[in-house]
Design a protein that fits this description.
By secondary structure, the chain is α+β, with helices and mostly antiparallel strands. The chain has helices at residues 70-82, 145-159, and strands at residues 7-8, 14-15, 26-35, 42-46, 57-58, 61-63, 92-100, 104-113, 129-133.
């Protein structure tokens, strides 16, 4: 028998949510990419001002739809948002963030990607700007709390 509050999600996840056993906070699964160019820089995008967390910088990616694998979602999102073609075998699972926002709990796997086809093209509906930056420079960009943890991991990786 399971104790405490839990949620069964369309993705098939069964997970207790939050510190409060009675919490009904939904779990949001988002797949993100650290696109790394040949010089070691990472691509980040700036959220549109009119969206939640508008103006903050983040790793490209997006929501995983019900029944969709995170890798498939990321390949789809990179095509839709940046017009990049990424093969699923180019995704290298690296780290994940788990962060409780007021209305939802975010679970975000981050994949390292160093192979893709095309040049990033910014789609205004997805982001208002994009920037290549070294891992150590990512701290200079205001980011959502979940992304900050992943920046720390990328900095550790680049220092190794």
């Amino acid at each position: 028998m399971l104790n405490g509050a839990s949620t069964i999600l369309p993705h098939g996840f069964f997970m207790p949510i939050g510190d409060n056993k009675c919490s009904t906070r939904r779990l949001l699964l988002v797949a993100a990419a650290a696109l790394i160019d040949p010089t070691g820089r990472v691509l980040i995008t700036q959220r549109p001002q009119h969206k939640e967390l508008g103006g903050l910088w983040e790793f490209p990616g997006g929501k995983v739809e019900p029944g969709e694998a995170p890798e498939d979602a990321l390949v789809r999102e990179l095509k839709e948002e940046l017009d990049l073609t990424v093969e699923p075998d180019a995704l290298d699972p690296f780290a994940f963030a788990s962060h409780a926002y007021p209305d939802f709990h975010l679970l975000m796997p981050l994949y390292l990607i160093s192979r893709w086809k095309g040049e990033p093209v910014l789609h205004e509906s997805a982001a208002q700007a994009m920037q290549w930056a070294r891992a150590s420079e990512l701290k200079n960009y205001p980011m959502p709390p979940a992304d900050v943890v992943l920046v720390e991991r990328l900095i550790e990786r680049s220092a190794a």
